[in-house]
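Lab notebook, bench 4. The sequencing result for the construct came back, and we need a structural model before the next group meeting so we can plan mutations. Quick request posted to the team channel:

Model the 3D structure of this chain.
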Amino acid sequence: MDRATRNMKASEDLAHPADAAAQQRTVPHRTRIKLCGLSKPADLAHAIDLGADAIGLVFYPPSPRSVSVAQAVELVHDVPPFVSVVGLFVNATPDWIREVASNVGLTLLQFHGDETAEQCESLAGVAGLPWLRALRVAADTRPADLVKSALNYSAASGLLFDTHVEGYGGGGKVFDWSLIPAELARRAVLSGGLNAQNVSDAIHRVRPYAVDVSSGIEVAGAKGVKDHARMAAFVRAVRAADAE
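Done. Here's the predicted structure in token form:
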């Protein structure tokens, strides 16, 4: 399309804003997909082949999904352009953040512990990277609580909503999705007990910007062991939901 044609199209949109808005609504929403807790080269390669938008690496040693710096360097070696590499940290020290970020090609940090907004910004500054804040949703959480947290962590690139469980993440449990206010959906990365069977319902109800899965793509009863068939089924379910 040449410049004259583009200018004419823009003028038509301004003259008929309702038509332009209707046309925009016909463009299907594409939910971004993050496959998390990957620890083997074959799993990461499969995630990329499936079209995952982001892969998550866990840098929290107590987790069965944790990887070392050496493992992570090997894992991300062949990650292609436009696939984000997200490093998950839990109450990490600046030195640990610095060591990981200086050796592993991360594009985003995910803080999943008890970090305050000030600590998140300080740790992200050490790495020189943008960051996500995980918000753990408990049974007594109210929508107003999430709005307050979103304002508190306004410097975050996004908010990951996960189920509150003992420990930090990976519980495979679902929370009440209706607690997420509609105004936060654009910043939302929905997590917590998602799998190929329920992710379509989650997308239709929340319309999050992205979904994040870890335990839902693993071999039953084997934390950290990814199931390639379940990975593929999850991605198919997300794409099918977007098309509906």
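DSSP finds nine helices and eight strands in the chain.
Will bring this to the meeting.
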